[in-house]
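Service request form, structural biology core

Requester: graduate student, group of Dr. S.
Request type: structure prediction, single chain
Budget code: on file
Notes: please return the result as C-alpha cells.

Sequence provided:
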Amino acid sequence: MNRFIRSMLLAVSIFGLGTIASAQDIPDAERVTTNDFRGRLEGTFEWEVAKDLSLEAGLQLRLNNDLGSVDRIHTSVGAQYEPCKYFNLGLDYILINGYDSRVKGWDKPRHRANLNLEGKLELGRVELSLRERVQTTFRTDSVNRYEKMNPEVVLRSRLMAEYSIRHSGWSPYILFELHNTLNAPKVVANYKTSPRSTDNYVTRYRAGVGAKLRITRNHRLDFYYYFDYDRSYNIDYKGNAGTLKGYKLENEFRHIFGVSYKFKL
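Core staff response, request fulfilled:
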C-alpha cells in the first residue's frame, strides 16, 4: 500500500511540475490602453413585404481617430419576422469594407452574418427588450488561426429600455450590451507542438443612451451615444518556429456618436 501511495504522489508531483513549467513558457500579456472618439452615419430602407415580415437594406459610414478619418463602410441587407408582439427573429448580412490609412486604400473586405432573437415586454409606455445576436465574421485575408479565428463567432447580448413620450414622436432609450467570444484562440507556447484550442471571454462592454424621433409614418431618425470598453488579445508567433513572441491585451475606450435615418415603406 505504501508503495502505491508513493507512486501516486510521484505522479501528481510530476504532473504539477509539468503544468508549472508549461505556464512559465507563456509570459504575462502586455497591456495597451487607448482612447478614441468615433462617429456613425447611417441610412436604412425598410419594406414590409407581408404581415409581420419586413426586409431592410442599409449603408453605414464609420469614422475613427477622433472623427478624423474613415474607418469602414458597412453595406447590409436583412429580414425580420415577428410571429407575435413579444418576439421577433432576424437575419442580416453585412459587407464590411475597411479603410487602411497607411496605404490610403480599402482593405480586404469581410463578410458578416447575424442571427437575431429578440423578446419584448411592454409596461405602460415603457418597452423592455432583450436581444441575443450570434455574429459570425468571415475574413478574406490569410491568417494564422492560432492568432485570429476565421470565422470569428461572438455572442452579443443587449438589454434595452425605451420610453414613448405621449404626443411627441420622441422615444428616449438606454441600453447595455455584452460581447462574448465563442471561439477566440487560446494562447499557447508553441502552436506547432500544441493542439489548437479556443477561449471564451467578454470582449466588449457597451452602455448607451439615445432618442428615436418619428417624424412621419415613413421617416424616422435615431440619435445615440455609446460608451464602449473594448478588450481583445493580439497574439504574435514566430512564423517558422511557431514559438510565442508575445501577446498584448489591448484595452480601448470608445466614445461613439451616431445618427441614423430610416425610410419605412
